[in-house]
Amino acid sequence: MNNPQISDQEFALFQRLIYKIGGISLSDAKKVLLVGRLQKRLRHHQLETFTQYYRMLADGAHQEELQIMVDLLTTNETYFFREPKHFDFLRDEILLKWRSTKCFRIWSAASSTGEEPYTLAMMLAHHLQDAAWEVVGSDLSTRVLEKAQQGHYPIERNEGIPPDFLRKYCLKGVRAQAGTFLIAESLRKRVSFHHVNLTLPINKELGKFEVIFLRNVMIYFDAETKRKVINNLLPHLVSGGHLIIGHSETLNGLETGLKALRPTIYRKD
């Protein structure tokens, strides 16, 4: 079977589908990426055209395949201590000033394969020590959530982790696990992962948070979807809590009620 190619009309079908599911605006420049990632699914189902694959997804009877498509099309580049100025702010302006006896809760709302929530867990474990704390991670992709829950990474992914954190919170693999490292169980048991579509109303049971990290995901959203996502998140942020977005992102033009403290860092008063 030859590798199927995609017409502009077929690509437009998938653009509308991924926008409907996750609010993701797939630009025309992503056409090659879509073909490269979905061709294997056409071959798996012995389909000859992208139109056939789209019809299979759209008929509502193949939810598992629909999730696979979402997993394949969501870009999930991440690494430990990414955009470190945010973690400096978390340490200096929030954690070192924390005096409450209640549980400090922080949400990594686009957690990908787990590097960000485990970075946050290292920060909380180090600076809050015996105080109660919890990290929640969420993502649209079930595939990356499975990897995140394992907390198991190739050794080259440890770049950026401070040496003292590496020694204290990361276990270097030996023998069959050589070339990898595992996040310590003491951290993993205080980090939970959930499948969340940020464009839909979010379950109240997720609770409220002192800090929400929403980084490097809104670059895929148009203005209306950004507004919807922020409105879904804000009920889960406590008064006085902080929302932190990616350095390439902005909330300019959105009526959020948040106070900008510095670029990409906001407070809910």
Write the layout of secondary structure elements.
Blueprint: H1 8-22, H2 31-44, H3 50-58, H4 63-73, H5 84-94, E1 104-108, H6 115-128, E2 133-139, H7 142-150, E3 152-154, H8 163-169, E4 170-172, E5 180-183, H9 185-188, E6 191-195, E7 209-214, H10 223-233, E8 237-245, E9 259-262, E10 265-267
Parallel strand pairs: 1-2, 1-7, 2-6, 7-8
Antiparallel strand pairs: 3-5, 4-5, 8-10, 9-10
Helix pairs in contact: 1-3
Question: Short description, anyone?
Answer:
It is built from 10 helices and 10 strands. It starts with 7 loop residues before the first helix and ends with a strand.
Structure, explained:
It is globular, with a radius of gyration of 20 Å. The chain is α/β, with parallel strands linked by helices. Helix 1 runs parallel beside helix 3 (50-58). The protein has helices spanning 8-22, 31-44, 50-58, 63-73, 84-94, 115-128, 142-150, 163-169, 185-188, 223-233; strands spanning 104-108, 133-139, 152-154, 170-172, 180-183, 191-195, 209-214, 237-245, 259-262, 265-267. It is built from ten helices and ten strands. The protein has a seven-stranded mixed β-sheet, with helices on one face. The chain has two domains: 8-73, Chemotaxis receptor methyltransferase CheR, N-terminal domain (Chemotaxis Receptor Methyltransferase Cher, domain 1); 84-152 and 183-267, 3-Layer(aba) Sandwich (Rossmann fold).
Tell me the CATH superfamily of the largest domain: Vaccinia Virus protein VP39
User: What is the architecture of the largest domain at the second tier of CATH?
Assistant: 3-Layer(aba) Sandwich
Give the SSE string.
Answer: HHHHHEHEHEHEEHEEHEEE
The DSSP helix count reads 10
